[in-house]
Amino acid sequence: MTGTGGALFAAVFLACAVEAVEALTIVLAAGTARGWRSAGQGVISALIVLAAVVAVLGPALTAIPLGALRLLVGALLLIFGLQWLRKAVLRASGHKDLHDEDAIFSRELAAARDAQAERRWVVTDWYAYTLSFKGVLLEGLEVAFIAITFGGNQHDVPLAAIAALCAIVAVTLAGLAAKAPLSRVPENTLKFVVGVMLTSFGMFWGAEGAHARWPGSDAALLVIAPLTALFALGLVALLRRSAPSRETAPRVAALEMERS
Amino acid sequence: MIARLRAFGAFWYDFIVGDDWRVAVCVIAALAITFGVSRSQVPAWWVLPAAVVLVLPWSLWRARRKR
Q: Which end of chain B is more exposed for a tag (fewer CB within 10 A), N or C?
């Protein structure tokens, strides 16, 4: 595996692991509170839809000329990466609540227990089905987007797909073993790393797509990613100085809840 | 039907653009500038890193001020 191949694998694996942890939390809540049959049907349906999306978009993306693909994907990854990085910096500096899988699991569990059971077609519990279907589909779309764009750009969709599958299998096995949300996975740190990688790849491919030439060609990525990480860490340190105090933190959390 | 289309559009807007649409606008503008500069003799690779250095703190500053 080359240097950029390794970076591609790491970026896709980490991004997909983060999304898989989030999907697992929702499926666990649906399965635990309502029953595994309908939750499982929701997961299978979402995986079928995702497979269809990948089957259509994958070949379509590889048919686009490389320059245009890099411009399009670079723009999308840079926008996407900056949003991830923005949230990660706000969380790391205390301006936004940390992503807490235990809290999300408890909230989903309580909502699932209160909902009425309803049978539709072959699904015995429509609530459990839609909850796990939406969870897997929404998080899975991000996985598919990252795997297809990274793989398409590097002309190595199989490697990106393997990285995505490895992440999903690892998280699923860990979740089955624990039978609980994977709250010990350092999700906020992973999101920070993924934000740095998406932003770095976005800058690199976006500039190449717009006909700029990086000094050192592909090796430039080895400088862009650490510098982006250092810059983001510097912003965290700067923002920590003005982080909300412990007294105002609950009010900020309440505002966050209202907005979300 | 219209409500569903609106929800579909809102999902993709939230998925791609996210919390701060200004970031997306700045990225597209920076790519256009990169393309423009690359047509001249001046190197153009620095435009996107410079845009990130300006846009990320600006977006964070706006998010912090909102709170």
A: N
Mutate to test the interface with A, among B37, B47, B64 (most CBs of A within 10 A): B64
Cβ separation B60–A207 shorter than 8 A: no
Residue A10 CB neighbours (<10 A): 14
pTM flag (> 0.95): no
ipTM for the complex shown: 0.90
Residue of A nearest to B60 (CA): A86
Q: Which residue has the tokens 């920076």?
A: B30
Q: Are A209 and A72 in contact (CB under 8 A)?
A: yes
- Closest chain B C-alpha to A183 CA, distance in angstroms: 24
Interatomic CA distance for residues A228 and A195, integer angstroms: 10
DSSP conformation class of A219: G
Distance separating alpha carbons of residues B60 and A227, to the nearest angstrom: 18
Break chain A into its structural domains and give their ranges. Answer: 3-259
Would you give per-residue pLDDT tens digits along chain A (260 residues)?
A: 566 677 778 888 888 888 888 888 888 877 777 777 888 888 888 888 888 887 787 777 667 777 788 888 889 889 988 988 998 898 888 877 766 666 666 777 666 666 666 667 766 777 778 888 888 888 888 778 777 777 777 777 788 888 888 888 888 888 777 766 666 666 777 788 888 988 998 899 899 889 999 998 888 888 999 999 999 999 999 888 877 665 554 444 444 444 44
One-letter identity of residue A244: P
